[in-house]
Each structure stands twice: as C-alpha cells, then as structure tokens.
Write a structure and sequence with these properties.
By secondary structure, the protein is mainly beta. It is built from no helices and 6 strands. Helices cover 0% and strands 48% of the residues. A 6-stranded antiparallel beta barrel has the order 1-2-3-6-5-4.
Length: 125
Amino acid sequence: MTRKKQTRDSTERRARQRFRIGQSLTYRSLSGKRAQGVGKILDISSKGVRFTTNDMLTPGLRVELDVNWPTRLNAACLIKLMVYGCVVRSDTGAAAIKIEHYEFRTRAVSSLPAPPNPLDCSKGF
C-alpha cells in the first residue's frame, strides 16, 4: 500500500510553511556591491525570507537582515533576529534569500528622557 503525500494547498509547491509577519528590517550586503536599505518581511520560513527592498539585489549576493522581533524574551527583554543568507531571487522592490544562518540577540532599548524626580520638593505646588 502506498501513501499519497498530503499537501496544504494544491497550488503551493514549497516544502516549508511560510509566515507573513510584516516586520520591519534593515539589510546590508556582506560581499560584492555594497547595498543596504530598509524593508519589510513579506514572508518567512525556516529556510528562506522574502522581503521588500529599496534596490534590486544581485542573485548570489550575501546579505545580513536585522529584524526587530515582535515578541520579548521572558516577557521583558527586546530581541532581534539576525539572518544571514544568499539572494536567490530579486526583482524591483523585493528579494528572496536562502537562510544560511540565523540567531536571536537581545537589543537595546532606545534611550528615553529621564522622568522628573517625584521626590523633588524644591518645586512648589
């Protein structure tokens, strides 16, 4: 008895499920032409990322993506996703990379102005 492979959608040919998270990112090239810019994730899986770009990226270009992740570590610490990979497709306004390596890192909180000291009694009521 042979088993028939089940698919999620008959039009979807990718082996990995894609997630449309829409997070903002910055990208920069690690080799070749020095490209950098900002964009948004169109979809992401465990093996690839498709994102918007300012410029058309050359296939084969190694890039680094810096993504502010939407959740926090232990509900307190901001984190970012660093993705390293190679451009496999690119057209005007978007590119796709094959993920070679990724890691989560903690990220700094942008500095906020110090709140007024509530115990400062020099100021009258």
